[in-house]
Design goal:
2 copies of one chain form a homodimer. Chain A is α+β, with helices and mostly antiparallel strands and about 400 residues long. Helix content of chain A is about 30%, strand content about 25%. At the A-B interface, helix 2, helix 8, helix 9, strand 13 and helix 11 of A face helix 2, helix 8, helix 9, strand 13 and helix 11 of B.
């Protein structure tokens, strides 16, 4: 869908009207680095809210609390910390998540049941609540606090991931903003990844969940860094309604535009997450065409983007295209070998069941680009999908062999 | 099952009676290294034969030919080359696999339909048939040729993987031998892995397939190096009957002993494959207890052994045990968080839904051992399983970023 979306340079989650944010260095991992690691987002009014969660069986206490608080489709504040995931922490972890919600509610002046709690960092460590308590005291939410929020939720991320777009409908200007974190342990269903989307559009609660699910399925859920999924991940959408105008519900003419705006922000965040994958030197984009169904197209695209053998080859500028088709072969998607086609960086290397001759040196040079595009035709239908990932580098191994040290 | 199995030091696939093997350096990847890369196994008589194959959708021409030739449950020769997988090679690949079978049949003096063809190496390259033709001329199968065969099938393997055991029943001595190759692209269902098992026991065709399936499901299929599965993998079992004695069929008293011998050889090969995983510095053994079913136990053990985050932590001697439970959480196996238990190198770090205090420096030192054992209790049943893998190292990335260069 083509939509007249206007990019907001340096846009954040507080670019949409009605949202304030603040961040502080609470010293959760250590009290010397001065890294922002605790943040609060507050909406001026209660928002329509929807979320999608990790599929991990062991959901962390913050996530379980958030699920309860969002059961009524409303929320007004988000408290997030980095450095400690507060998951697999037993009963103490449950009490700590509850206290975080209470601290945030008191600070923001909202009901405890309208607070979302998110924690990211090392699994299995108890959260240092004394530092959380002290840190909350230093939070000062403001209208331009979105950027601090984005930095505070980072763990091994090397850059903050934010985006915002605007669109107009019937004389009203609406804004969608988003922020995400995550760079390791990211896989296709809400792995150690947090994403918060805000909009000032007034959105009907009934359509909000479906809107978020569709958005995420085509963007954040098509991202894979290392095949792992964590216990704490979520994508959350808050709609403040502060832009005014009619409530956007089922069949409203602005709904497709709002969907496009959310998709745009979420895809931008997804690409930023992929590019900043732990140790990554390249963004990997895999498009699959000719699939029997969207599910199959997604399955194949994710399998290729997630193949660590291919990811290592991409790191080495190695046109080892057999690894692409190998992944297509084991992913379970329907495909016909005699109608397969494959191109890397627009160079076709395989067509109709047989390898094509190609200039290996030229392709090797093309693969040295910071963005590698792979395109596979399955030859059985019309469905298509795109997945994003990154290369696998020695740096990834270094980072993940030293994380808790 | 405890069985009086006698290990045969330096045993090979030609240790069981009735098998000859030969190998040569055919120059398939290059004609300068002198590496053995073409091998032939010949049985003196037609053998009862069974195989299990890769689950990859795009099975290579050698594998498809082998399936046809084994349809009658009989085989007498195996021709294997390393350096080129002859897969995703179109019609030419099919013709090349057929010619390899014909060359082997002529050399060995057996029927073409009794020849198994296996190719391993780079996917998508046409096999240099002129070198295969010349190489077959140099093959001289002998009774002590098993070791050469084991070296010829190696690709990125750094050591040959072989084993043999003996057992006695009713005055007859039976031998089981085995050889395997594979170190990258190995996952749980016959990924780029070849395993050939031989026995001189006379085995009924009807029980041979089940025997191989059970053996492989508990050993080679519990091995994961990098989550990838290739187009060419197989495990093959040949029973020559040269030891004499009664044919071993359903209900025969020697069947459990034969199963134990096969399991012993296959598990030894599996551990050798894991230890020699590409770039690996450590063997990783993951045992899961208390599962609701064997399927669940296997699923959980494989998920933990396959988590690249955990594998990176193991490389770094990092007691980041949250990554173990994280993998258990996303694998889909039934588990109860409040009854989970976890130990690493016999140090218990988690019990009954909460972390335990432990001496981090001591555990770090214990993890520096060349063999890392992880044990997880799921707390829901009685089933158990073990999976094997290895750590993820910067060397793995280096190897796989340069493979075709």
């Amino acid at each position: 869908m083509e939509a007249p979306l206007i990019d907001v340079p340096d846009g954040t989650i507080t670019t949409p009207r009605g949202f304030l944010a603040g961040a502080t260095a609470a010293g959760i991992r250590d009290d010397v680095s001065g890294k922002l690691d605790l943040a609060l987002l507050v909406a001026e009014e209660r928002c329509a809210a929807a979320a999608v969660y990790t599929t991990n069986r062991f959901q962390g206490p913050p996530l379980r609390l958030t699920k309860r608080h969002l059961a009524d489709g409303k929320a007004q504040a988000i408290i997030v910390n980095a450095g400690c995931a507060n998951s697999l922490t037993g009963e103490q972890g449950v009490r700590d998540a509850q206290e975080m919600a209470e601290l945030a509610a008191a600070k923001a002046g909202v009901a405890v049941e309208d607070v979302v709690v998110a924690s990211t960092g090392v699994t299995g460590w108890l959260i240092p609540m004394d530092r959380i308590r002290a840190g909350v005291g230093h939070l000062i939410p403001t209208e331009d606090g979105g950027d601090g929020f984005a930095h505070a939720i980072m763990t091994t991320d090397t850059v903050a991931k934010q985006a915002a777009v605007r669109f107009q409908h019937d004389g009203v200007t609406y804004t969608v903003g988003g922020v995400a974190k995550g760079s390791g342990m990211i896989h296709v269903n809400m792995a150690t990844m947090l994403a918060f989307l805000t909009t000032d559009a007034p959105v009907d609660s009934a359509v909000l969940s479906a809107l978020l699910r569709e958005t995420v399925d085509a963007s954040l859920n098509m991202l894979t860094i290392d095949g792992d999924t964590s216990t704490n991940d979520m994508a959350l959408l808050l709609a403040s309604g502060a832009a005014g105008g009619e409530t956007i519900g089922e069949g409203h003419p602005a709904l497709p535009l709002l969907g496009a705006a959310l998709g745009n922000v979420a895809t931008t965040l997804t690409r930023k997450l992929a590019r900043d994958g732990e140790g990554a030197s390249k963004l990997l984009e895999v498009r699959v065409d000719g699939a029997a169904s969207v599910e199959d197209a997604r399955k194949a695209a994710k399998a290729v983007a997630g193949s660590i053998l291919l990811k290592a080859a991409v790191f080495g500028n190695d046109p080892n295209w057999g690894r692409v088709l190998d992944a297509v072969g084991y992913c379970g998607a329907e495909a016909r070998e005699e109608r397969l086609a494959l191109s890397m960086q627009e160079v076709e290397v395989y067509r109709d069941g047989a390898p094509l001759p190609f200039d290996e040196d030229a392709l090797r040079q093309a693969l040295a680009h910071s963005e590698v595009r792979i395109r596979v035709e399955l030859g059985v239908g019309e469905a298509t999908a795109t997945a994003w990932g990154c290369d696998l580098t020695p740096e990834y191994v270094r980072i993940n062999s030293e994380y808790t040290t």
